[in-house]
Amino acid sequence: MAAAEREAELERKSVKEKARLRLREFDVGDKFSRLPLPKASVLLPLTVRGGELHLLLTVRSMQLRRSPGEVCFPGGKSEAVDKDEIDTALREAKEEVGLQPEKVEVICRLVPGIDKMNHLVTPVVGFIEDTFQATPNPDEVSDVFLVPLEYFVKPLNYKTLPYKTSSSYLSWMHCFTYDDHERKMSFKIWGLTAHFAVFLALVIFGKRPTFEVDYDLDNLISSSENNFMNLYASLYERKKSNL
Length: 243
Description:
It is built from 4 helices and 11 strands. By secondary structure, the chain is of the alpha+beta class. A hairpin with a 5-residue loop joins strand 6 (113-114) and strand 7 (120-127). Helix 1 (3-25) packs across helix 3. The longest helix has 23 residues, at 3-25.
């Protein structure tokens, strides 16, 4: 191995190790797994390119009934064969982009979110090799691309979008436009996908983003869990009032 290659390999290992240490502090394990909501999981696949962390994302097939053409992470609903959220995320990633489960170094589960169908969605973070070549399942995925993770704290094109939560509370969401200059394509990343990407970047980099976020950045663990439990409580209250 040439000196330059050795140096690049050491740098890659160092970047990964720093990220691993930060992520393990934020691992929620199965803390939220028993909440009485239908379950889903997404895989947040990290890889190191050119000494920088990148996140793999997919574009949903236009044939899909729900959210066609939208950017998301590999993932989907829990099935009976899955023993936990990690199993769900790995199984879905294999089905959608051909990522073999044994090729993923799973690091942690982060605080979940609740999607518009009221699924409890758990983000599972894992490292994949920088040599991974996706083989998208055309029934589910029309494209696969990488975004530097730092883009989700220091974007070039960012705005907020207003939306109503499932409990009819008016809020806002992150919306990023990422220009892939190599491929001359633009991708819009928003909603729960952007929410998870931003939180992942905040966890790993530990620095203030160039836009407003709904967290106490000095107490990121507790404020992220409090935000989620407030969201869950508002959903639970709405369900009770509809009975």
